Amino acid sequence: MLITILTVTSSALEITFTSPDSVHLNQEFEVSINADSTETHDVKIFVHNSEDQSIARSEYISEIFDDDWKDPWYYLKESFPDKKEYKIRVIESPDNGKICVRLRKTSTQTTSIECKPIEVKESSQSENTKQENNPDQYQTPDSEKSSEPSTPKENLENPQVQNPTTLSTLNNKILLNSQPGQSQEKEQTYTKQYNKRQVIIYSFLFFLVLIIILLALRKL
Question: What's the whole-model pTM score?
Answer without folding.
Answer: 0.54
